[in-house]
Specification:
The chain has 303 residues and is an alpha/beta fold. It has 2 domains: 212 residues, Rossmann fold; 67 residues, Orthogonal Bundle (Arc Repressor Mutant, subunit A), CATH 1.10.10. It is built from 11 helices and 11 strands. The radius of gyration is 20 Å and the shape is globular.
Amino acid sequence: MPTNRTTDFLRELLVRQVATWLPAALHRSRRATVALAWAGADDGGAEAALRVVADHAAQVRGRQVTVLVLADGAADLPARLGPIEAELPAEVTVHLLPGGPDRLPVAVKAGGAAGSPLFCFLDLPGEVPPHLLDAAANGRAGEVLLHAGGPTRAALTAAGFPLVAEVTPVLPADATGDAAGAAAGVVAFGSRSDRSLEAVRDALWAVGAELGVRYRDPADPAAPPVDVAGEPALEPLARQLLAELRRGGPRPVTELRRHTLTATVYRAADANRALTDLVDAGDVRRERDTGRLAGDELITPTR
């Protein structure tokens, strides 16, 4: 099966996110829907995601999981998915539907996703049509992970996702040593859950470290990409957090962690370390003298 660095990256990210999302969704609901849509071939993504569902067979039993697949450019998809479908418990229904991502609203409605948790993965080459994000929002029950040609923050916010994160993946050199530093569009995530937001950022860093992918803020294309292998340099994050505090005044740690996830390429745990560095440098003041930073602890800029 043909593949490249971008599809390898997206496939691994999709696998990690489905593995995180599915158990949580089934914990709070007896029904859950996974919708996967590619504008072209899926390059093994549908198989990989379905294997994750199969790996959670014990948690699926007694519940209902629907998997919707739209990949108009993959004629061999039925043959590839067939053996995996045969291993699935009876509670899992797989619908391989004709058409590409534009058919998502019809697929979600036909799949009975209304009112229950919905996870959507969209791989699109250009701009994301608003009606697709409206369908992915599924009222207030949806989350979406998407790969697009450019920033999608405004569109995701307009669709009703209050928490949005996006990064520009910067790919490593290929086997010939060419194309180092090539950007692979924008990966964005829309949710209503801080926990989900934190999970997808952790997944991005894990996949990035594994595949040698760095990340850049789409809103600052001239900035150097952040290397996520090993311990990151936290000075850029510390500067951004200090600027945010000077702009908006004292903030609790929880809000600064959320700001880190929605406005930078860093993880929530990195925010705690950067804030500790700012405290040690005397740039900010914390409420308590000792101990780990608590989520409700107020951080105040000192200068």
